[in-house]
Specification:
The structure holds 2 protein chains of 2 kinds.
Chain A lengths: L8 E9 L3 E4 H9 L9 E4 L6 H14 L9 E7 L10 H8 L7 E5 L5 H14 L5 E9 L14 E10 L5 E10 L5 E2 L8 E2 L5 H20 L8 E4 L5 H10 L3 H5 L4 H4 L6 H12 L5 E5 L6 E9 L3 H4 L6 H6 L2 E2 L2 H7 L6
Parallel strand pairs in A: 2-14, 4-5, 4-6, 11-12
Antiparallel strand pairs in A: 1-7, 1-8, 2-3, 6-7, 8-13, 9-10, 12-13
Helix pairs in contact in A: 2-3, 5-6
Chain B lengths: L3 H6 L1 H6 L1 E5 L5 E2 L14 E5 L3 E10 L12 E8 L4 E5 L13 E10 L8 E8 L7
Antiparallel strand pairs in B: 1-2, 1-3, 4-5, 4-7, 5-6, 7-8
Classes of the chains: A alpha/beta, B mainly beta.
Bound molecules: zinc ion.
């Protein structure tokens, strides 16, 4: 069940991006709930007028390359972008990103889809691509500008962000890959039909049978295959649609709140969908030390979870400072009200 | 302005700030051109600039040309790149009252034009205030 390539591979670089605008949950509650009721998080990130999955992916990718040391972008044989909000229905995000980082023309370029786990899916595929010897480097990105119907429960959390990972040989890596495992079944918890602007979700399906079952099964089986236990990990990062779910799933699996705290960004930036758990991992790598083990588990509606186990190497210490840290983006904060948010997220037409 | 062939030809220059270095006199050139403006030779090599620079002068646009209405008001600046050339570009991720001559900026790749609901999206360089690392 465990997925592991023959050749040793790892993350040679990683990079984050979060837009600067923040919409407080209190603003959403003011507009739709007369300011009453509980809110799932403090605030969420909002993309600016000139931002989308392409632009955010480009910046995260540039940060990943800055941390990779002297990697020639022309040696990157795959640029893969996972998202549910690609700017075009037909025309890849990945070719634009590849062009902007100088990886064209001898590169594989493709867009991946699977709700909030499209990013980890691209990471797994990149591990296979490099691990098979087909490529020296492959770039995997999770990126979203998530859209929510006005007044929908998701409007409190659906946000924007991007995380990029350059996968390469283990000897150049800042974290080596130990193994991964995927668990997927058919669940109608969340979907968006063609030509629809906003997604729909199936209330009672979103919690226990979807998020919790898939993550718990993926993580348990992975740890069983690798012979690891929760205390072997310094940090664990889970998909974070709100604050409650990742903490609750961590406890169910035997992890402590301390292990998940460093990678838990949702309260400050919201649910960045395909970037959610990958962005949490960038925040962890920013402070990780050589020898630390980290567990990552995504969740994508529809549904599935990808669990990965990595071990941080000595190279981390010199790479962390080579690009802005995730915390630098989180604290670069400009609050907006609901009206500006409505303009920025294209809800106002003139 | 939103000409598909022209945007396609200029994509390297626009996405990555690719300019030239003159192999004869060493001057950095942006945008790329056939003849060196300093020594008038034609011996140039492509180079991607670092994207770091500072605001040399600026002006805020309230009545934009056709095709840029969605972003107005926005600020256009002359940016002095650390390699030397002056580049005209939009500033982004800032409020117009924050702009100052000499402020440090860095290049980002952003949407220049959204092409309405059906047209091609145009991406290109803009500059934003340089990100300051948060206190550790
Ligand atoms: Zn010259």
């Amino acid at each position: 069940m465990v997925l592991k390539p023959r050749r040793e591979v790892g993350f040679v670089g990683y990079g984050a991006y979060v837009p600067r605008y923040r919409l407080p949950n209190a603003e959403v509650a003011r507009v739709w709930m007369q300011g009453q009721g509980s809110t799932p998080i403090k605030e969420k990130s909002v993309a600016g007028l000139d931002e989308d999955v392409v632009t955010m992916s480009v910046e995260a990718a540039r940060n990943a390359l800055s941390r990779a040391g002297p990697v020639d972008p022309n040696q990157i044989r795959a640029v893969w972008v996972g998202s549910e909000s690609h700017p075009y229905a037909v025309k890849p995000t990945s070719t634009i990103v590849a062009e902007a980082i100088g990886a064209t023309p001898y590169t594989q370029a493709a867009d991946w889809e699977f709700a909030c786990k499209a990013g980890t899916e691209a990471i797994q595929a990149a591990i296979g691509f490099v691990g098979s010897g087909m490529a020296r480097y492959a770039l995997a990105i999770g990126s979203d500008v998530a859209q929510a119907r006005p007044a929908d429960a998701l409007e409190y959390t659906a946000s924007a962000g991007s995380a990029a990972y350059l996968v390469g040989p283990a000897r150049e890596a800042l974290a080596t890959f130990e193994g991964s495992l995927s668990y997927a079944t058919d669940i109608p918890d969340f979907w968006r039909r063609a030509y629809q602007r906003y997604p729909s979700h199936g209330g009672r399906f979103t919690g226990q049978p979807a998020y919790f079952t898939h993550i718990v099964e993926a993580v348990r089986s992975l740890m069983e295959c690798l012979g690891t236990e929760p205390p072997d990990y310094r940090y664990a990062v889970f998909h974070q649609p709100n604050v409650k779910f990742p903490i609750s799933v961590a406890k169910q699996l035997g992890f402590t709140v301390e292990q998940v705290q460093s990678g838990l960004l949702v309260n400050e930036i919201g649910n960045t969908y395909a970037a959610s758990s990958p962005l949490g991992l960038t925040a962890v790598l920013d402070i990780a030390e050589p020898g630390d083990r980290v567990l990552l588990a995504s969740y994508g509606s529809g549904a599935g979870s990808d669990a990965l186990s990595i071990r941080v190497t000595d190279a981390i210490l010199e790479r962390q400072r080579l690009a802005p840290r995730t915390r630098d983006y989180v604290t670069r904060r400009r609050e907006v009200d609901y009206a500006i948010y409505a303009r920025y997220s294209n809800k106002l037409v003139r | 302005m939103n000409s598909v062939p022209r945007n396609w030809r200029l994509r390297q220059q626009r996405y990555r700030l690719v300019g030239e270095i003159c192999e004869s006199c060493g001057v950095r050139i942006f945008p790329p051109r056939d003849v060196c403006p300093e020594c008038e030779t034609m011996e140039q090599k492509e180079v991607a600039f670092s994207g770091r620079g500072e605001v040399y002068s600026y002006s805020t646009v309230y009545h934009p040309p056709r095709g840029f209405e969605e972003f107005a008001p926005y600020t256009v600046a002359l940016v002095r790149l650390e390699e030397g050339p002056l580049v005209t570009a939009q500033l982004t991720d800032l409020d117009s009252e924050q702009v100052k001559i000499g402020m440090s900026v860095e290049m980002v790749t952003r949407r220049m034009q959204s092409g309405g609901e059906e047209g091609p999206i145009v991406y290109g360089y803009k500059f934003r205030p340089a990100i300051q690392p948060a206190a550790a």
